[in-house]
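Box 3.1 A note on notation
Throughout this textbook, protein chains are presented in two layers. The first layer is the amino acid sequence; the second is a token string describing backbone geometry. Keep the layers aligned when reading.
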Amino acid sequence: MPKPDLTNQFFDIKPLKNWGILWFPISMTNINTKQSVGDCIKWIEFFGTKAGEPKIGINLTYCDFLYLNSGEPASELKEKFMHQMVSHINGVKRILHKKRKIFQIQHAFHSETWGNLYLEIEGDFNEFFKKVKEFYKKDKLFQKYINEDARFFNRKLSEEQLNFFLEEDLMVYLVLYGKVKFRNEYVQGREKWILISYPGVPPKSVVYFVQKNPFKFKTGNPYLGQYNLKNKKFYDYNNFDLETWNYD
């Protein structure tokens, strides 16, 4: 019998096995709402039920530098982000310690900022970003999907917002293809997979960029996609038909 067509259909994942990293990118617009301390702890506990083996590290990345793609004064953003990040990570650490009978491997948790990731990339992030901009200028579909993302997320596509989308797409691509070295005291570079965990659907431009694989990277990562923490489904980027998918 022919295999069923699973295009634009997404499902939960099986128990996580082998060494891996759960990557939680913390949006600065969500840090006090749908990615609050309480929500993060809830999701970490949830993934505890998905752990087939005790070989998982969790990295929280605060996306502060990404949000500097803005017209707001840098000094004001710095002040706001500093307070938000410190308050959030301290809250996470307090609960992890308080629940240490549940979260027994305390050193499996690591936090960093978006700026740290620039320094942990295999290659030159500036050169990668330059090439992404060139790719955007030439690829009409990439332009189309970024415009659709801007409308869906209710963003005006200014130069700053365009840079935001391009940088986000690039970083996700580099992470999924194993080009970012995550520091995690427990995993210690042994990860065989990286799973992006975020409360929501992915932007079309990210999906397209990963599908297109413009740098021709290779990876053994089985999770080329994003786990939607809201509906407990894994959005496999290879299962998308972007022309018919409508952010659902």
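The beta strands are 20-26, 56-62, 109-113, 193-198, 225-228, 233-236. The chain has a mean pLDDT of 96.
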